[in-house]
Design brief:
Layout lengths: L5 H10 L17 H12 L15 H11 L2 H21 L8 H14 L8 H7 L17 H16 L3 H22 L1 H6 L19 H10 L5 H14 L4 H7 L5 H18 L3
Length: 280
């Protein structure tokens, strides 16, 4: 059972804006049911969509409320830490400093208390953004050779877009490179990708051909197979979310205009993915 106090719970309720029934909609985190399930499963091994978490209702917010009432501190700390990382990462892509939010800082301290760690302002999102991946290339990735110069050309164009202060073009280019790269890896390893337990299937239970997979599905399966670690998976989904702004009405609906900082984050995600896929 959790040792969270009512006051501590209120901090998370407010930061995550849980009164809506959703979680982190205030930072456009786009946490779908599947993503929410994956976050908690990866952090704890627990299926948040089990019936035992429906006591207060079936919304994501209500499931999280039951979770932090019933589960042990370690598991709660792991889940809240992941959600705080997403919050911080989304804030940073907007050029905002999450550390300026007193509630966010308090929530960080609460998580560290639950996990038994000493308070620290550092978090995975900040560390990820500051990591130096150096000059990345596709040379050491085991994919079809003919696709490598095309991907390299697009990466060069993305970098030029950043220098020219064209964040939307950078985001779209990064999204296309990520999707093309993961498709190329899947085509090089069809048996692995087709037999993965989370590979997308049709109504008859047959695995879909790769040309019908979404970028989200490529990311999740690549993580499940060990090609991408959990941090890269999480941040790749952020890039995928931004890539959806290619539809003008998505940008209008979100009310968020990507900035050069957003573009830098997307390039960082792409660099991390390229390095992760390289063969030693």
């Amino acid at each position: 059972m959790s040792s969270l106090s009512p006051t501590e719970i209120e901090f998370f309720e407010e930061l995550f804006e849980m009164e809506t029934g959703y979680i982190l909609d205030n930072v456009e985190a786009n946490i779908t049911n599947a993503k929410f399930q994956s976050i908690i499963k990866s952090a704890t091994g627990i299926d948040i969509y089990h019936k035992r978490f429906e006591e207060k209702g079936t919304s994501k917010a209500n499931r999280l409320r039951v979770f932090w009432e019933r589960e042990i501190d370690e598991d709660i700390a792991n889940v809240l830490n992941e959600l705080l990382n997403i919050y911080a990462f989304k804030k940073q892509t907007r050029g905002e400093n999450p550390e300026e939010n007193a509630i966010y800082k308090q929530c960080r301290n609460i998580v560290q208390k639950l996990s038994g760690k000493k308070p620290s302002s550092a978090n995975a999102a900040e560390e990820f953004l500051q990591k130096d991946f150096g000059e990345v290339t596709f040379d050491k990735i085991d994919i079809e050779e003919s696709i490598k110069p095309i991907l390299a050309g697009r990466l060069k164009e993305a970098r030029q877009g950043l220098e020219a202060n064209n964040p939307l073009s950078v985001i779209f280019m990064c999204g296309s490179i990520l999707e093309g790269l993961l498709l190329a890896v899947a085509q090089q390893n069809p048996k692995q990708f087709n037999t993965c337990n989370i590979s997308p299937k049709d109504e008859e239970g047959k695995v879909l051909p790769f040309n019908r997979w979404s970028l989200s599905q490529f990311i999740d399966v690549a993580n499940e197979l060990g090609y991408l670690d959990i941090d890269i998976k999480k941040f790749s989904h952020v890039l995928r979310d931004f890539r959806n702004y290619i539809h003008p009405f998505e940008e209008l609906k979100s009310g968020f205009t990507p900035t050069p900082e957003t573009a830098k984050v997307c390039l960082q995600v792409l660099r991390a993915t390229i390095v992760s896929l390289q063969k030693e």
